[in-house]
Predict the structure.
Amino acid sequence: MWNFLKQQLYVLWSNVVTLWLVFTHLFKKKDTVEYPDVQPYMFPRWRGRIILSRDPDGEERCVACNLCAVACPVDCIALQKTEDENGRWYPEFFRINFSRCIMCGFCEEACPTHAIQLTPDFEMAEYVRQDMVWEKKDLLISGTGKYHDYNFYKIAGKAIGGKGKGEARHELPPIDRRSLLP
Amino acid sequence: MFELTVGSLLNIVAMLAAVAVIAALLIWIERRVLGFLSERLGPNRVGPFGILQSVADVVKLITKEDWVPPFSDKLVFVVAPLIVPIAMLLSFGVLPIAPGVGVMDLNIGLLWVFAMAGLGAYSAMLGGLASNNKFALLGGLRAAGQMISYEVFMGVSILGVVILGDSFNLREIVEAQRDGWFVFPQFVGFVVFVIAGLAETKRWPFDLAEGESEIISGFNTEYSGMKFGLFFVGEYIGMLLLSALIPVLFFGGWYAPFGLELPNPVVSGLFWMFIKTSFWVFFFILVRAALVRPRYDQLMNYGWLVMLPLSLLNLLITGAVVLAQGN
């Protein structure tokens, strides 16, 4: 009898404690993210929508090396290399199928010229599936993205129109190995 | 036998409108407060602060298909959801809100409330039976057992108040509390009444008749559209009734605590009644957010082995004390 009463009092008391603890939650900070009304803070290295950047001179960075397409685990990148009159390589078309893309960022890691980059934008929903396929004109931005002073052709040894062999940054003029002069 | 005074037409219409509007608002308030209690925001999209959520819900419920299962007992199936809101609304008839405000003044007001609450039990029972569905039947049986057994000591727990107030008339009970709330001499009766009232309105944690995780939706498994809406609104009217009944019986009704009367007695009564009712509405929402549902045998054991002896003891002691003081 005494134990029964003790148990009943304990049950009642534990329920009162529960009520109090839940009541204190009324004043705690709410976890709800009011997303469409309040934009969440996106970290700069968030892996979202993929862009193609330009070098500081405003030229396309992409040299159509296909490394991103090779690295892509879901094969969502398709491109075709072509060359302009100066000998610069660039993609004739560059197509990313965002309905396949998993935002893994392997393309960004594979890219030797910092051309392909992932941005913090994630609002990419479309009503028509075909609209998820982005062409080069959609992907290419006018800025440099995350790397502001990287310019592949100014650093690489490849000769293009307006820049011969040995004129790149950190590069010495080529040596004529057949010459006997010191 | 009956001494019945009916209030003015204005009283009746205002009461009906107020109860309907507040019951609809309660659906939104409950969801909002539940959200805050679980560190969410709750529905805040429709109208300012989501206050029109109930309107959106009603539109949804009305435009839904009003389906009567072909295997059900059709007449009973249609009538069952009507019983609970009607019974609960009728209970409001005897509720005194402020001096001179109230629909009717009945000398057996408290019995009337209990009679109507007893009728409300038929809603779940008949709904569960008429659905001709295993889960609905289980829910209906649970509702019947739970409401009948908790009604017993709900009535007994109130008798202490009746002894102290020397009347079944709710208005006279409130007036008897002018000098002191009945919650102090009748604390045990008060606790028993709150617990029994929770079970009587089938609200959490005593929602065994619905028991979503066990029997889908209990007695209203087969109900959809506005017929479900009637069950739903009836539950909220019941909650509002209970929240208003507790202040009337134990917390001095419209009398202001600590002498904080407003100048006009009617305005003061309405204000304090509103504050007290709101407090209990909030308390019931808090209980819903915090407590877990007992097993059915635990519910029955608790009712018959703890609450009933406790309320009888309370009645016995109250009666003895009143007798001793009277002599």
Q: What stands out?
A: Chain A touches chain B through 16 residues (CB under 8 Å). Strands of chain A lie at 50-52, 77-83, 89-97, 116-118, 133-134.
